[in-house]
Amino acid sequence: MESIRKFADQPLTWTQPYVTCREYKLRCPDGLLAGLRWPSVWSSQAEGETVEGTWLLERSGWMKPRITAIVAKSNAEVGCLELEWGGGTAVFPSGSRYRWVRRSFWRGEWAFVDEKDDPLVTFTPQPGFFKYQLAVRILPRAIGVPELPLLTLLGCYTLILQAHDAAASSAAAVAAMG
Hints:
It is a single chain. This protein has one helix and twelve strands, in the order ββββββββββββα. 28% of the residues are buried. The protein has one domain (4-169): Porin, CATH 2.40.160. By secondary structure, it is an alpha+beta fold. A hairpin with a 5-residue loop joins strand 10 and strand 11. The chain has a twelve-stranded antiparallel barrel with strand order 1-2-3-4-5-6-7-8-9-10-11-12.
């Protein structure tokens, strides 16, 4: 595994290696940069790993959802993404805050942006047959952001849960129609 920081402005993709497992890999043309996996299909808790560390990510709340990031070995909370209608804010103990915004309605592009609304990391869903994929772009200005690896994991985690929720809603609607 290599550092995400080395691959600004290069094509990166979160891919699901197998349809049957809830595991995703962030890849560049040269190799593996990060992993995200759900140990249980019955839980929203996932384990995210980069060369910089391993974190547990978990969604909680219904009316005011949030995704909490915890260092895997120490159980210390290192940040959270507070979600609201149409976006959210990633908040870290250092005082850093990054907004989670939808950048394109039709393409489904999302991004973490800084206080000037300049994008740091963008995520764009890609067509896939039964597998969920995201194109990721790390902008050069993000290289110095200490939370970059965690922002990259949080973005993928959030969009995967949104896709799973949408699929479950669609299945429930079809089932209700008879």
